[in-house]
Amino acid sequence: MTILTGAVIGGLIELGKLGLQAYFQAMRLADKTPEEVDKMYAEEKIYFDGHSPDTLPDAPPDNPEE
Amino acid sequence: MFLKSLKKCSILLFFLAMVVAMASMFQLYGCVTPGITDDGPKRITEMTPKEKGAWFLGIYNAQDKDYRNMVIRPDLTNDQKKILREKKKIMIRIYPMIKTYNTYLDSGAVPTKIVEDQIIQLINDLTALAIPKPE
Question: What ipTM was reported for this prediction?
Answer without folding.
Answer: 0.79
